[in-house]
Design goal:
By secondary structure, the chain is mainly β. It has no helices and seven strands. The protein is globular.
Length: about 80
Amino acid sequence: MNKFVKGALVYLPAGATLYDFDDEGVVEKYKTMLKPTNVLFIGDNKAGVGALYDVLYEGSRWSVRKGDAYPTRRE
Protein backbone atom coordinates (compact mmCIF):
# COMPACT_ATOMS: atom_id res chain seq x y z
CA MET A 1 0.00 0.00 0.00
CA ASN A 2 1.31 3.44 -0.93
CA LYS A 3 1.75 6.33 1.49
CA PHE A 4 1.42 9.88 0.20
CA VAL A 5 2.08 13.31 1.64
CA LYS A 6 -0.59 15.99 1.44
CA GLY A 7 -0.34 17.81 -1.88
CA ALA A 8 1.28 14.91 -3.77
CA LEU A 9 0.12 13.99 -7.24
CA VAL A 10 -1.47 10.55 -7.31
CA TYR A 11 -2.01 8.41 -10.41
CA LEU A 12 -5.41 6.73 -10.85
CA PRO A 13 -5.75 4.10 -13.59
CA ALA A 14 -8.75 3.77 -15.88
CA GLY A 15 -11.49 1.90 -14.04
CA ALA A 16 -10.72 3.42 -10.63
CA THR A 17 -13.88 4.59 -8.86
CA LEU A 18 -14.22 7.88 -7.00
CA TYR A 19 -16.82 8.15 -4.22
CA ASP A 20 -18.58 11.13 -2.62
CA PHE A 21 -20.02 10.50 0.85
CA ASP A 22 -22.77 12.37 2.68
CA ASP A 23 -22.41 13.46 6.32
CA GLU A 24 -23.45 10.01 7.58
CA GLY A 25 -20.84 8.17 5.51
CA VAL A 26 -23.25 6.89 2.86
CA VAL A 27 -22.17 7.07 -0.80
CA GLU A 28 -24.05 9.95 -2.38
CA LYS A 29 -22.52 9.69 -5.84
CA TYR A 30 -19.66 7.95 -7.59
CA LYS A 31 -17.65 8.28 -10.77
CA THR A 32 -15.61 5.66 -12.63
CA MET A 33 -12.50 6.95 -14.37
CA LEU A 34 -12.68 6.32 -18.11
CA LYS A 35 -9.00 7.12 -18.65
CA PRO A 36 -5.92 7.28 -16.42
CA THR A 37 -5.50 10.59 -14.62
CA ASN A 38 -3.53 12.37 -11.93
CA VAL A 39 -5.29 13.84 -8.88
CA LEU A 40 -4.11 15.76 -5.82
CA PHE A 41 -3.82 13.79 -2.56
CA ILE A 42 -5.46 15.64 0.34
CA GLY A 43 -5.42 13.02 3.12
CA ASP A 44 -6.95 9.89 4.55
CA ASN A 45 -10.70 9.53 4.15
CA LYS A 46 -12.59 12.19 6.12
CA ALA A 47 -15.56 9.86 6.65
CA GLY A 48 -13.33 7.51 8.63
CA VAL A 49 -13.38 4.68 6.11
CA GLY A 50 -9.88 3.26 6.53
CA ALA A 51 -9.46 1.75 3.07
CA LEU A 52 -9.88 5.08 1.25
CA TYR A 53 -7.86 8.20 0.48
CA ASP A 54 -9.34 11.64 -0.16
CA VAL A 55 -8.27 13.33 -3.39
CA LEU A 56 -9.08 16.51 -5.27
CA TYR A 57 -10.56 15.90 -8.73
CA GLU A 58 -12.20 18.57 -10.92
CA GLY A 59 -12.31 20.97 -7.96
CA SER A 60 -14.16 18.60 -5.60
CA ARG A 61 -13.17 16.25 -2.77
CA TRP A 62 -13.58 12.57 -3.67
CA SER A 63 -12.55 9.33 -2.01
CA VAL A 64 -10.72 6.52 -3.80
CA ARG A 65 -9.72 3.01 -2.72
CA LYS A 66 -6.12 2.94 -1.49
CA GLY A 67 -5.42 0.04 -3.86
CA ASP A 68 -6.33 2.24 -6.86
CA ALA A 69 -3.91 5.07 -5.98
CA TYR A 70 -0.32 4.96 -7.20
CA PRO A 71 2.59 7.39 -6.99
CA THR A 72 3.32 9.31 -10.18
CA ARG A 73 6.57 8.47 -11.92
CA ARG A 74 9.47 10.86 -11.66
CA GLU A 75 11.15 11.40 -15.01
